[in-house]
Amino acid sequence: MNKDTANIILVDKPASWTSFDVVAKIRGQIRRELQEKGQKPTKKQLRVGHAGTLDPFATGLLIILKGDACKQAGEFLKLDKTYEFTAKLGENSTTGDPEGEITPVSGTSPSKEAVLEALDSLTGQITQIPPMYSAIKIGGERAYKLARDGKDIDMPPRQVEIYRLELISYQYPYIKAVCDVSSGTYIRTLVEDIGNYLKSGAHCTELRRTKIGEYDLSDVDSVIN
Questions:
Q1: Is there a catalytic annotation at residue 55?
Q2: Can you give the pTM of this predicted structure?
């Protein structure tokens, strides 16, 4: 990939912000900086986009592209990613995260050995059905918009690869883990798969993206607040 480093901004996205909120914030900063210099911003100067959505509840690395670098968005989307996440067992969520309707799931607390077995079973190439509440387009409409309207969604499954799925800690009902995954992997779905394997239910309560390809969270240029 030919990197236009001058037009790439690495942001540590805070919780509650959408990826588009960050884009709008940076576009506004560019506009103000140019106006303070007595310049009228051009359409090209205000061209800002992101390379890979993060859910509002999630935090971490978000790549922002400016100007001509926006043309490379598709290349960034193909890069592998690293996430740290917390899964809460014993509860399901309609959205797979804390923002959905939470439903308790009866059952006993799995052992650490069972949790490790679940993580091992989901390592490698797996088939995922992306969540209904996602930015995937179905018939030209965003899936989350269709879901909010109560419409039936036929979400096509996809092949993804989980290169590493490693336990950080486990104290029921919380599993903390780190994973390296291929492009297109949904961590909310991965967490639900863990809950299904353990027959305990699960949803993702915390999610932090720490790496995209060679870009690392430790190299961020901007913290949005």
A1: yes
A2: 0.89
